[in-house]
Amino acid sequence: MRAAVLLFPGLNREGDAMRALEQASGVKPTLVWHAEHDLPSGTDLVVVPGGFSYGDYLRCGAIAGRANIMHAVRAHAERGGLVLGICNGFQILCESGLLPGVLMRNKDLRFVCRMQHLRVERNDTPFTNRYSRQQIIKVCVAHGEGNYVADPETIARLEGEGRVAFRYSDANGELGGEANCNGSINDIAGVYSERMNVLGMMPHSENLIDPMMGGIDGRGLFESLVHAPARAA
Amino acid sequence: MKARVTVTLKTGVLDPQGKAIEGALRSLAIEGVDSVRQGKMFDLELSFEDPARAQAVLKDACEKLLANTVVENYRIEIL
Known about the structure:
heterodimer, A: alpha/beta, 5 helices, 11 strands, 24% strand, globular, B: 79 residues, alpha+beta, Mth169, Chain: A, 3-stranded antiparallel β-sheet
């Protein structure tokens, strides 16, 4: 699997994403600067990591979502290529139009940084084939704007088409209440594009790949991508 | 010429910042404020003097960048 990790000014999780990708695939990903116009040829997967691109000016992900390289990412996704956005990367994918909805300020206004359980909604996608359906995994979250919002029609469509990837839950798989760390509608922690080849998620799976960090449940995401059928254009 | 763009949250979209400001006003004993919604304002200087063109250019700017029309409305004023 050939992965390209995008770098915008202000991102800070690119190293974590690259480490997780290399651990799963054995291949070092390529770091791609935002001002580039093209992705490296043969790219299977584009990862938009987390951080604070452009200092979150205007809106989270708004400026990065319109950078040069995003035209190439859009074309890659249109060809069926895989795209993964984590945290600020999710915000960037929403702002770029690759995913519906928007990430608003957390409901209680606090930056939330903690371990977080998720329920894996389905395991028949390129991103989750190494998990089981409804599996509860423990990863972590670190964001101030993760409150997923979309109009009721969009939410109904996402739910109807099975495009919710992960939901915030507690360790027993119970949704809602305290388990929903930011107020997201329907406890949505991650969503797929219409063709299931683009995934945006707020939690940091890339940080739970080493027992030293308190768990390895995040590995499944990257191992799934390695085992996904090749989609390179 | 100069123009001003105001971006506000659509009705029904939760605005926790506005709510926090509302609470702070209450704690200052400022009376009669029923609700607060926070928005953004942009002052722009344009290199031409054609109001119709300015409307078109700024509408494009709002749709493409200044507002996220999923949750925000915008208003353009030519000053």
